[in-house]
Amino acid sequence: MFPFLRSRDRIRAPGVRALMAGAAFTALGASCDNNAQFIPNRVSFDNIQVLGATPVKKVTTQAGGTLFEPACGGDATHVRVDFNLISTARKPRDDGFVDRDRQIREGLDVVDDKQIIIGSTVNVDDFDLSVNCISSHSGGDQGGNCAGTDPSDTVDASGLVYVDRVNGEPRGTPIGVAILVDQSGSTLGAGDGLVPAGALRPTCIEGKPDAYDAASLQDCASDSEELRLQAAKTLLKDLNADDRSIVFQFNEEVGVKIVCDADAPAATEDQKGKECYTTRREKFYGGIVDDDLYIDQLSDQVLGSRGVGRSNLWQALEMGFTYMKLQGEVARHIVVVTDGTDTCTSESTDFQHCFTNDGAGEAPTAQSPCASAVSFNTLRTQVEAYIAERRANQLPNDLHISFVHFQSPGYPDHDARMQQLACLTGGNYTFINSNRLSAERAEAMTDAMTRLRYSLSGHWGLVTGISEYTADPATSAAASAKGDNYALGGQLTLKKDVVTKTDEIAPFIFDGNLDGRLPVVRPCQVDADCGTGAGAVCGIRCDPESKLCAAPAQGSPCGVGNVCCAGACVAGPVCVDPADPRSCP
């Protein structure tokens, strides 16, 4: 697919501009004019927004300096709390250009007559970071008490950083964005409708039955009001006029398709690929009437195949990554809006080898992988190879993967694989903990997308040492276990008189019905990390995909003709486990 793809026609070298007080900056489009100067923007401070948490490790450079590099494989020495410093809306330039990116960027913005420079006008001491809770999130923990250890956190003296995603380019430098929209059955409740004995709700596991029960649809829908589509439109609306974008939808039925009102009524995917990576937003939602009113066609017309089949997330990401890595912007982003992990590939511990559609009166039956399914390890290998190639050429990674992950009843946990990809590529992972947001917090998904938008060219980070997260469980009783998902609770404060008149506090806590704690994974490396006796073929082990301690899925192969069933490898081809309603009879 996509034979029109071609190599990028430009590559920018790293370290083009040093961000120093009093430095002059070359204006966009004026590279041939050595006298052109970039004047820092004068803005006012508006608010601080916490984005997420990234595991990092402290390294010493050859020059004796200190860096904090992402540590995605379990070798973290610190955690970086990522955040935005948001300005008021920017005034149009003389040429009419409006910069909708409200991130205050180091060296490029002046706030209250202060050019914002780390170590000069803003320092680590200007912030208070309190991480007062670390708790396992396994099982979709919805509790607000954040039960667990009370970590001792220390902000590293070198720990205030600005993460530049456009390689020192000036404000307004065009970026590219691909939005991947999950249209799988679980978004509208098309899941396993079986109610286990003693349970109040269906299991809500995504599958492919012939019919659905109305009650199950209502109970199992993760986004019955299709708020994810509004979130996608929010991001499109907030991009700068020169930023190019493209939208993909994915589910088992349609595969991966470009969402675009192409000029030709019967345009092929290849034709859409050439035409629909564009600055023309009307290609995606039908046209702009004015700044505030949009014709709503993203859900009603263009995204016509929604809420159907299983999720082919890794296939969609592979195709989106292949497409975007060949585009020409100095920075490109893939933004995924999804309610859970890939349910198409049988290599995953989340794959349901058996499916029950109780509402249709069917007995459990075996499921096969989706056509053209892509495993997570295949995708991760491709991402790592691209990053390694860039590094070998002394170039920074320029393609970032971010997720807005909203919870579904069948898959209530943080997803460690999404967090891996975000960490590897310098993206962000946001988790929204409720599928009842339409009634409770309808703005949560668009808020998450807005915060992500302001981070596309860069964001800030404060590095903290959390001994409970980094200590070795073999030698420290207080250490958090490896192979688990965690949530960090606390707050970040920007002190008054820096760029604001009062303390600005950004909590990341469980607030009402919204879990604002920061997801972070502590990956396992080997089966022994998962406890004594771990590693049995159908028992708890260090899962090679998620790097979590987990057992293989019921019904997964464990040898020639055998399958895993109730923790044991038994004769197949199906598993019969009376304790698990999803096993096959």
Describe it.
With 585 residues, this protein is an alpha+beta fold. It folds into 3 domains: 41-171 and 462-522, no CATH class; 176-188 and 223-352 and 369-456, 3-Layer(aba) Sandwich (Rossmann fold), CATH 3.40.50.410; 527-571, no CATH class. Helix content is 16%, strand content 26%. The protein has 11 helices and 27 strands. It has helices at 214-220, 227-238, 269-275, 282-285, 298-302, 313-324, 376-392, 416-425, 437-440, 444-454, 467-470, and strands spanning 41-43, 45-60, 66-70, 78-87, 109-111, 114-115, 127-136, 153-164, 176-182, 244-251, 255-259, 332-338, 354-355, 365-366, 399-406, 429-432, 458-466, 484-494, 504-508, 510-511, 514-515, 518-522, 541-542, 549-550, 557-559, 562-565, 568-571. The strands form 8 sheets. Strands 11-10-9-12-15-16 form a 6-stranded mixed sheet, with helices on both faces. The longest helix is centred in the middle third of the chain and has 17 residues, at 376-392. The chain is globular. The chain starts with 40 loop residues before the first strand and ends in a 14-residue tail after the last strand.
